[in-house]
Amino acid sequence: MSKVALVTDSTAYIPQELIEKYHITVTPQILIWGDETFEDGVDIQPEAFYQRLKNAKIMPTTSQVSIVNMQKAFSGLIEKGYDVLGIFISAKLSGTIQSAQQALEALGSAASKVAIVDSNATAMAMGFQVLTVARAAADGASLADCVRLAEKAREHTGVYFAVDTLEFLHRGGRIGGAQRFLGSALNLKPILMLENGRIEAVDRVRTRTKALERLIELVAEKVKDKSPIRLATLHANAEQEAREVLQKASQQLQATETVFSEVSPVIGTHAGPGTIGLAYMAGM
Asked: Where would I find the beta strands (DSSP E) of the chain?
């Protein structure tokens, strides 16, 4: 029986040591900045991205993983004898699943060795799904078993995030249900969530401190009476605050696993600097 290899995209933010441990293949999203094109997390890293964003006269845009890179990832693993499961960013946020499906069509008969699952998420809400399946695959789970597990894991994950401004989401066309917060008093901090793969508005609070406290409260409500609990913070150029959120949330909710991650340039383009998120997986 073939072993199963996992493929995801660069918005998962799985720490490098876990990517290496479970042999996860990460396909890069694309960042377009004027005449320059970068592969997310390959040609441009978060620190350099946010530094450049501060003084940029031209704002970056994004594009999904290329079909060529997706096909390379799939065919390379198949040639090594693997079955492949791809778990990618929500189709309601990106065309990445479409790239994966087009790459499959180019594989011919080998396409039967590949399955694709829409995470309905991004960031470590997706990353936890990938890790859960990668761990099962390492223990010998079949491709069919991995698909079932991925679909189950999807129902146990989520992410809330606080943004400094809705400007970036609005400009990038990813604002979704947070549209109704546009035009609010400027000093109110929006709190958003991913629900069914789409950005939805949750709350508005008066200060950043309150916003970060509210993130923990919202996740606590979601994971109540469930265990184990896995937590991850993600941040766009707000490392210290994100570390504090993760520490507080982990202690309060008695997390069994915690992950600290940065927001890559592609998601940072849409969320904007200062964004902090709290992702969770609970009950499996």
From this structure: 4-9, 25-27, 30-33, 36-39, 61-63, 83-88, 114-118, 157-162, 189-195, 198-205, 229-235, 257-262, 276-282
For domain 157-282, give its CATH number from 3.40.50.2300, 3.90.1150.10, 3.40.190.10, 3.30.1180.10.
3.30.1180.10
Give 221-241 pLDDT, tens digit per residue.
999 999 999 999 999 889 999
**Residue 162: CA count within 13 A, CB half-sphere:** 27
Element (H, E) at 269: helix 265-271
pLDDT tens column, 20-31: 999 999 999 999
Tokens 């340039």 found at: 265
Q: Residue 143's CB: how many other CB atoms inside 10 A?
A: 21
**Residue type at 133 in one-letter notation:** V
Residues 101 and 55 sit within 8 Å (Cβ to Cβ): no
Enter the pTM of the model: 0.91
Domain residues of the chain, as ranges?
A: 4-29+64-154, 157-282
Residue for token pair 């096909």: 71
pLDDT at 167 over 90: no
| Interatomic CA distance for residues 83 and 2, integer angstroms | 6
The answer regarding whether domain 4-29+64-154 maps to CATH 3.40.225.10 reads no
What's the CA gap between 215 and 141, in Å, rounded? 35
DSSP string computed for 204-242: EESSHHHHHHHHHHHHHHHHTT--SEEEEEEESS-HHHH
Cα-trace Rg, the chain = 18
Does residue 52 contact residue 59 with C-beta atoms inside 8 Å? no
Residue 258, token pair as written in the block = 């915690």
